[in-house]
Amino acid sequence: MTMLMGRLAGVALQLALAALLVLFLPPYYVYRLTASFLGSVFPDSVSGKVVLITGASSGIGEHLAYEYAKRGANLALVARREASLREVADHASALGSPSVLVLPADVSKPDDCRKFMDDTVAYFGRLDHLVNNASIWQVCKFQEVEDVNYFRTLMVHSHMPFSVLHTNLGHELT
């Protein structure tokens, strides 16, 4: 008897799973087909767009620059280390970026932020995308921290490109 009940439970489970597949799989495929169709009709292209990337001399910023370059974007690359930034710019040009502007600057300094934003717009005539990737970090032992207000200053400065863009650029992003 228990063997029969076990088999019935197994069959019921298989039927339930089959019913779930019948109910949920077709809408999933309709979604995927629709998304694929819309993606081909309305492609999201950055070819010819102007992209400013802060923190572009290494790490995530460097690889973002390469991905935008492969897609044909004009790049304005910002970082403190000019030599590394020039290497990234050369590689981005080789990957297909039509134009690369190297802007050595420190995002923690408001004047530098204004300058690299203004220089980008002056060079390309516009700015389409801002990738605020620069980071400022400090390594220390918790016991050595005497004034936690210093960390707040770093956090405020990390948002500097957005405030400069909002208040000092004088035009809208396209």
TrEMBL record:
GO CC, alphabetical: cytosol; membrane
Q: Where in the cell is it found?
A: Membrane
Highest taxon, organism lineage? Eukaryota
InterPro entries in UniProt: NAD(P)-bd_dom_sf, SDR_fam
Query: What is the first-listed, main subcellular location in coarse terms?
Result: membrane
Which Pfam families does the protein's record reference? adh_short (PF00106)
The membrane-topology field of this record reads: Single-pass type II membrane protein
Entry's Gene Ontology molecular function annotations:
oxidoreductase activity
Q: What does the UniProt keyword field contain? A: Oxidoreductase
Its family remark reads: Belongs to the short-chain dehydrogenases/reductases (SDR) family.
Name of protein:
Hydroxysteroid 11-beta-dehydrogenase 1-like protein
Originating organism: Triticum urartu
The organism that produces this protein has a lineage beginning with: Eukaryota, Viridiplantae, Streptophyta, Embryophyta, Tracheophyta
